[in-house]
Amino acid sequence: MSIVNDIRTAFSRRDNALNQLLLINVLVFVAFILLRTVLFLVTKDKNAHLPILQWLAVPSVPGTLLTRPWTLLTYSFIHFDFFHILFNLLNLYWFGTLVREYLGDRRLVSLYVLGALAGAALYLLAFNLLPVFRDAPAILYGASAGVTAVILAAATLLPDYTFSIIFIGPVRIKYIAAVVVLVSVAGINGGNAGGEIAHLGGALLGFVFIKQIQAGRDLGRPVQAIGDWVGNLVSGRPNLRVTHRSGPAEAPTAKKSGPIKPEQEEIDGILDKISRSGYESLSKEEKQKLFKASQK
To answer: Distance (Å, rounded) from C-alpha 64 to C-alpha 127?
Structure first.
């Protein structure tokens, strides 16, 4: 089928991380909708899918979590409500596109994964340390923590970038991020306290992630290393070992102390282009050079 071929092609590309994250969420959503329907037709029980959900969602009880550690990641790809996944994927696409343009595919995936882990961590802390939640066991699922990390990362990276919102007009994304955080804080005393707390964990991670990148430290390296190891294991590719042959001595080369910064004249040219044609007229390479220059 052409749909199957399209999906296989999307996952075979190495520069397609954003679409792959979107696809995984959609495929899991469709799988659960089909599973829930089949189980209902067979058992006549609308809640027959809950035991499976509980094996994939993060439990608030630490003892249960120890028997299901994989839930710290699997929960971030599970949705049951159409509007829940719709808003999550729209935000992931809009803000993820910005993060991917500046930081690349690998860091986008790292940010999503770390945001999900941070959201789960804050949720577990709240439900086990705060008296108001301690006697109310719950489960956590949904991509919102990872998506909120991407939103806050984009807003920290490009605070004055504007999105045009229907009925409102152009809005700087730093204000969109502020509203996202405020809504999550206000929703803690509502019916989805665990989800809102997880949003805040993801938001904090997104902010810290970019601040560390700007300071020259990449928090996503462990995630990338694990991803490389799993990829090599699945594909059967051996790890490459570097060997040195003895030979004529080579002239010593200057040691690089960090990434090469774009020349000031080139940056001035990019800024002139923005003043003439707007930020959207820049190429991906020009945007990356502008970001590197901002780290000076």
So the answer is: 13
How far is the C-alpha of 147 from the C-alpha of 153, rounded, in Å?
10
Q: Is 76 helix (H, G, I), strand (E, B) or coil?
A: helix
3-state DSSP assignment of residue 165 = strand
Sign of CA dihedral 175, 176, 179, 180: negative
Q: Which residues contact 203 (CB under 8 A, 6 or more apart)?
A: 148, 149, 151, 152, 177, 180, 181, 184
CA 56 – CA 41 distance, rounded (Å): 22
Q: Which of 103, 134, 100, 140 is nearest to 120 (CA)?
A: 140
Q: Which of 37-41, 82-86, 116-120, 230-234 has the lowest mean pLDDT?
A: 230-234
What is the distance between the alpha carbons of residues 230 and 225, in angstroms, rounded to a whole number? 9
Report pTM: 0.79
C-alpha to C-alpha distance for 149 and 244, rounded to whole angstroms: 42
Q: Is 232 helix (H, G, I), strand (E, B) or coil?
A: helix
Distance CA 138, CA 127 (A): 8
pLDDT band of residue 235 (cuts 50, 70, 90) is low
Residue 67 sits at φ, ψ, to 5 deg, of -90, -10
User: Does the pLDDT value for residue 248 go beyond 70?
Assistant: no
Q: What is the mean pLDDT of the chain?
A: 85
- Residues paired with 140 in a beta bridge: 58
Q: Which helix (H) or strand (E) holds 58?
A: strand 58-59
Of 107, 157, 163, 188, the C-alpha closest to 287 is 157
Residue 234 has a pLDDT of 66
pLDDT reported for residue 241: 47
Task: Give the rounded percent of residues in the chain with a pLDDT score beyond 70.
Answer: 83
Element (H, E) at 170: strand 169-172
Q: Residue 100 corresponds to which tokens in the numbers above?
A: 């991917």
Residues in a beta bridge with 139: 59
